[in-house]
Each structure stands twice: as structure tokens, then as C-alpha cells.
Amino acid sequence: MKNALESLPEILLLGPGPSTTHPEVLHALGRPTIGHLDPKFIELMDETKALLQRLAHTNHPLTLPISGTGSAGMETAFVNFIEPGDRVLVLQNGVFGTRMKDVAQRLRAEVDALDFDWGAPVDPDRLRTHLTGNRYDIIAVVHAETSTGVRNPLDEIAAIVRPTGALFLVDSVTGLGGIPVTLDDWGVDIFYSGTQKCLACPPGLAPFSASGRALAKLRARTSKVPNWYLDLSLISNYWEGAKRAYHHTAPINMIYGLYAALRVILEEGEEAVFARHRAAHEGLVAGLDQLGLELLVEPACRLPMLNAVKVPAGIDEAAVRSRLLADHAIEIGAGLGPLAGNIWRIGLMGHNARPEIVDRVLAALAACLK
């Protein structure tokens, strides 16, 4: 019988995610599987929670990985804390802001959206003006917008949201592990991320955190959480306390992988990791400039780990991506929405944020553009 696994190529994943898995994470994934209620596994769960709290700079007791990708983290964030009729404001400047709006509307919330140009950051002054005379239960924003390469100004946004009393919801699927995430300083109430970006771990878990204010809203619900699998009032009984109550079978080996990924980052040191991502980004930008290529986003609000590169006039962007994959075993991403066909997205995330990786993709891109 043919074994399809043996024919899988080794691809350098430089798109918007997943990123290349760190070797130590790969080793951890291959450790023997044990039971999800085994005392040793529960001990590992507790250590993983503590490492997540350290990396996200939070004392939120309910900090844990949701079983599922970053999209499961998004669903968790909304289904637990929205009831029909709640007022929600979404700050939109890319695909994942629009997805937030869609999820909130499906839960029958009253959803407003502040729209900003794709490739530009959220404007705090517009937000401040909009909030004059408007009250919301939740205000949601994407920290690192993967579809455009924009880094939204969380410090400024948080300072505007905090006095309103709204729960502050933040998506940092691409940010965690590549740029600072400081939940308690920002006053974030609901947070989710993903393992497959700067954590250099395969897709399959969504790091998640909820504040005491958020949990108070959860406990005060007048209706059941509409999603059983993502109901935090049930999941928390498995992740917290002396007696763990079975909810679902955890993805055991993926939690091994997340534990290893968090250790890798914290042992290298957060500042060193962030500096490595910045240096890789700067090296890529310099090399792209020599090739006559420009970035979509202005320097002040660029993400270091996700680079949106303008496609030159007359270039078939899909053909370039195909050649990179076929001839150089490198994957980069295409544009989405209004940016489809107009940009390439080059990710330098986690283990890929290294000079030799930058040199390799620049050389390959130069060859494909000839």
C-alpha cells in the first residue's frame, strides 16, 4: 500500500501561517501519549497555563489553550460573552476584523463597525469620537492584522476603551510570541491567539485568556452558552481546581508541543525573540528594496513577522508564488479581499525569523522575478 506521508515535501513555510515548526516542538509532539486525566498530564497542563500567563503578561486565572485553531479562539471569545441584544463595536481594517463582525452578528448582537483602510491602522481619534454618546458591552480589535501586515496601536486603543466599561476583546493570533503582548497593562478582558504563527507550533490550539470582569459576565448570563464544545463554564472545570471534570478529550500531544514552544521562547528571552523578529524584518525590507519592491504598510505600523509586499505592475503574482513553491520549496501567501492579486504576504514567524531564512527567500524571489 502506498504511504502518502513518504511523498510529502519539506517546504519552507513563509506565508501568513502556518510557520515552520521548531525542532524542539517536533520532538515534543512525538513523546508518548498519556491519558488526558493522568496526574502527569494535569501537572503539564498547569505548567502550560503558567507559561502562557508569563508570555501574555497576565494574572488572569482562566488562561488556557482552547482545543482548536485560532478561529476556535475567536468563537470562544464571542459565544461565551455575548447574549442576544448586546452591543458590540468591531474595529475593522482587514479580514479578521470582518470575521469578528460576522461571528458577533450570528449571535444576534447589535454590531457596529468602524472601518479603516486595509493597510492602515485603526485611528484612535476616530474611535474616541465615535464613543462619544455610544455605549457598548464589548469593543473588539485585531492586534496584528494578518491579512495586511498592520500592527494596530493597542496602547492608545486600550486607553480609550478602558473608561467606557466595555469588555475589551483582542485577537493576537499573529502577535503572540513575535511582538509584546501585555494583557494586564492594556486592560484586555478577552484574548485569543494561535499556535501556528510566532509560537512555531503546528495549528491546533488557541491560547486564550479571560479577566475576572469577563468571567463575571459569563456567570451572569441569562441563557446557556450556545456552543457546548467551547463553553468556558464547562471547560474551566477541566483546567482548574483540585478535581478535574472531564469535558472533552484534550489534544494531548499538541499540548506537549505548546508547552515546548513556550519554553523555547521564554528560555531565549522575550526581548531577544522580539529583536530577532525585528532584525529579520529589517533585513527583508532592505533586500526587497534592492529588488525594487515596496511594502504596503507604512514603517511606523508594520508588523515585523508579516510583510505585505506590493506586486509590481505587469507581474503575475500567482505565477511567482507557484515558481517559489515548485522550484525553491518556499511558500508565501497571496492577498485577501480587496488586496487579492495586489500583494504577497511573506511571514517571518518564530523559528523562521533568522538571517539565513531571509537570505534564502530573497534569492529565490529574485530568481523568480527575472
**Class from helix and strand fractions:** alpha/beta
Question: Which outline best applies?
Answer: globular
Distance between the termini: 42 Å
Percent helix, as a range, is 40-55%
CATH architecture of the largest domain: 3-Layer(aba) Sandwich
Number of E strands:
14
CATH class of the largest domain reads: Alpha Beta
What is the strand arrangement across the widest sheet?
Answer: 2-10-9-8-5-3-4
CATH homologous superfamily assignment of the largest domain: Type I PLP-dependent aspartate aminotransferase-like (Major domain)
Number of domains: 2
- Poorly predicted runs are none
Rg result: 21 Å
Query: What is the N-to-C order of secondary-structure elements (H for helix, E for strand)?
Result: EHHEHEHEHEEEHEHEEHHHHEHEEEH
Descriptors:
single chain; 370 residues; alpha/beta; Aspartate Aminotransferase, domain 1; Aspartate Aminotransferase, domain 2; 2 domains; seven-stranded mixed beta sheet; three-stranded antiparallel beta sheet; 14 strands
Any overview of this molecule?
It contains 13 helices and 14 strands. It is α/β, with parallel strands linked by helices and 370 residues long. The chain has two domains: 9-18 and 269-369, Alpha-Beta Complex (Aspartate Aminotransferase, domain 1), CATH 3.90.1150; 23-266, Type I PLP-dependent aspartate aminotransferase-like (Major domain) (Aspartate Aminotransferase, domain 2, 3-Layer(aba) Sandwich), CATH 3.40.640.10. The strands form four sheets. The chain has a seven-stranded mixed beta sheet, with helices on both faces. A three-stranded antiparallel beta sheet has the order 11-14-13, covered by helices on one side. The chain has a two-stranded parallel sheet with strand order 1-12. Strand 8, helix 7 and strand 9 (190-192) form a beta-alpha-beta unit. Helix 1 (23-29) packs antiparallel against helix 10 (252-268), helix 11 packs parallel to helix 13 and helix 12 (317-328) packs across helix 13 (355-369). The longest helix has 21 residues, at 270-290. It is globular. The model has no long low-confidence stretch (mean pLDDT 97).
